[in-house]
């Protein structure tokens, strides 16, 4: 009798476990239980809530989101503004009159450091601060037109004398990972073709004289182009008035 009772109790316990297992397994695993946030997290959110901007419950449109992202990309953080001021002060204090804007291609680190030292021995300073920083440095100056060249990866060569134009052309021809795009002398911009012509001159006085001629030629060419456009406009208006009178 006791054996029957023992088997009955074990059978009942087995049935209870089976029903418990079946009841626990009947709940789907895709419904997760809510877990409240930790107390420290809620305390932190309550502390910073007065200084945070108000949260918007509506989703912004694609246009608003694009404008917001563009504004965030164009804004400068404090560390970028500080670096731009530092670079501008460094250029002014060192009295760099010649700047070469170059395309900077990938190069091994040891080769880069060796080339930097070699350029420094020849009176050229190699810098690659980034396009955003240099765009801020050139802002509100005659060199702001160089923004069109500040795309991709760029580097800059700084020199103090006009004679360094020849050094810039000669050294960049030796390095296949630096491609010059423009050279500035003071507040004037010289193309690479004109800089190459200056590099072929023999003496420093020839370089200075040819540079002065090129810089003087730029405003004269601008005036001539404006005069030709005005004469063309006047001639076309006269022809139009004659045809209308006929």
From TrEMBL:
| Name of the protein in question | Large ribosomal subunit protein uL10m
InterPro entries the record matches: Ribosomal_uL10 (IPR001790), Ribosomal_uL10-like_sf (IPR043141), Ribosomal_uL10_bac_type (IPR047865)
Q: Which Gene3D superfamilies match?
A: 3.30.70.1730
UniProtKB keywords: Ribonucleoprotein, Ribosomal protein
| GO cellular component terms, A-Z | ribonucleoprotein complex; ribosome
Species name for this entry?
Steinernema hermaphroditum
Tagged with keyword Ribonucleoprotein: yes
Protein family according to the UniProt entry:
Belongs to the universal ribosomal protein uL10 family.
């Amino acid at each position: 009798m006791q054996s029957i009772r023992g088997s009955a109790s074990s059978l009942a316990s087995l049935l209870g476990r089976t029903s418990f297992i079946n009841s626990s397994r009947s709940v789907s695993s895709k419904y997760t239980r809510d877990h409240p946030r930790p107390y420290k997290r809620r305390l932190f959110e309550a502390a910073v809530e007065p200084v945070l901007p108000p949260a918007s419950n509506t989703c912004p449109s694609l246009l608003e989101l694009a404008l917001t992202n563009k504004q965030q990309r164009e804004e400068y953080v404090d560390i970028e503004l500080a670096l731009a001021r530092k670079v501008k002060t460094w250029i002014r204090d060192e009295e760099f009159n010649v700047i070469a804007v170059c395309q900077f291609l990938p190069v091994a680190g040891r080769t880069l450091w060796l080339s930097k030292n070699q350029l420094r021995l020849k009176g050229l300073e190699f810098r690659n601060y980034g396009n955003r920083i240099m765009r801020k440095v050139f802002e509100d100056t005659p060199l702001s037109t160089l923004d069109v060249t500040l795309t991709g990866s760029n580097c800059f060569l700084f020199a103090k004398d006009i004679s360094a134009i020849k050094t810039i052309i000669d050294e960049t021809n030796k390095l296949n990972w630096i491609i010059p795009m423009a050279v500035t002398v003071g507040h004037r911009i010289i193309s690479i073709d004109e800089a190459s012509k200056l590099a072929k001159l023999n003496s420093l006085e020839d370089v200075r004289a040819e540079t002065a001629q090129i810089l003087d030629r730029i405003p004269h060419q601008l005036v001539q182009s404006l005069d030709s456009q005005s004469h063309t406009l006047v001639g076309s208006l006269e022809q139009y008035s004659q045809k209308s009178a006929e």
